[in-house]
Write a structure and sequence with these properties.
The structure is a homodimer.
Chain A (H helix, E strand, L loop, with lengths): L6 E4 L7 E4 L2 E4 L3 H13 L1 E6 L15 E7 L5 H4 L3 E2 L10 E2 L12 E12 L2 E5 L8 E7 L14 H13 L2
Antiparallel strand pairs in A: 1-4, 1-10, 2-3, 4-9, 5-8, 5-10, 6-7, 8-9
């Protein structure tokens, strides 16, 4: 299963918020500062530049307001790929949790995903907001966001995740 | 960018609903029958069997009601990977559209994604419903579904997609 780089992400985020090593995840700033940065980033515009020979795959994309971007966590080390459990966001108060139950970028296959708002297309370039990738991340896939294909019923989330989401939402006010 | 197979999907869906060739996508049944099948499949239980040495990545997953499954479209041919535009679902009435604006399994990187309901976990095995993968699909990643990370505002979708979704919803009654 070999991936092709179909494009590249360009933005002003040079450093990942978290770094993974043998001991798990480590936030590069304190938690509050990291949340603040994440917010700032989510309002910044990122460019997605698709390989020129693949420009046609974007035809019709501007009829969607939101798209799903799959990209490669190119800063995730081999050690990061072999982690199986972490304290989410490197926070010891959060339970030691299996990688599949977290949004950690360090995971066996660092295929990262964000749903972003599509602001415009010019040829092989897309402008989007809300993309929390770092600069130069390779693009793996783009899909339309179709709300009806996501759960319409109630959903349950782990308590630590609810706390993290609340922290993020509070930080945005 | 090399993917590892972290597990495998087991279910009763043996044949893909669509096959891709040089000429684009072709539905294997007529449209109504395909929609009906898709429905049936979406109620069936699939098993996700994670490699035994990675069992720990699932710890804590059962605190989420829904998970995102990334899997590999292993039946997508090389020809399918080189398509850039298709008539969605092989339907000529739908506009000739860039792959990135469709949910076509045939795409440059056939990393397919479905949000499913998690019914249970037993060791390295998950039982889920709503997974429209075919039997023996390799699993690439599992992530928790966190509603707050998806658009909370209004979304816009292409007209043909709205029609397809409506057809699917009508079919379920």
């Amino acid at each position: 299963m070999k991936l092709r780089r179909i494009g590249i992400i360009k933005n002003r985020t040079e450093k990942p918020a978290m770094v993974s090593g043998r001991d798990g995840l480590e936030l590069q700033d304190d938690f509050d500062k990291a949340i603040e940065k994440l917010h700032k980033t989510s309002e910044d515009i990122s460019e997605i530049i698709i390989n020129e020979d693949l420009t046609a795959i974007l035809d019709g994309i501007d009829e969607f307001s939101h798209i799903i971007v799959l990209y490669w966590g190119h800063k995730v080390s081999e050690e990061g790929r072999s982690l199986t459990r972490v304290h989410p966001m490197g926070k010891k108060e959060f339970p030691f949790t299996g990688i599949a139950a977290t949004c950690s970028p360090a995971r066996p296959n660092p295929v990262l995903m964000t749903v972003v708002r599509l602001c415009g297309r010019k040829g092989n370039q897309l402008q989007v907001t809300g993309l929390d990738a770092i600069n130069e991340s390779p693009v793996i896939d783009i899909k339309p966001y179709v709300r009806e294909l996501f759960p319409q019923e109630d959903v349950m989330e782990a308590e630590w995740m609810q706390k993290a989401v609340k922290k993020f939402n509070d930080g945005s006010r």
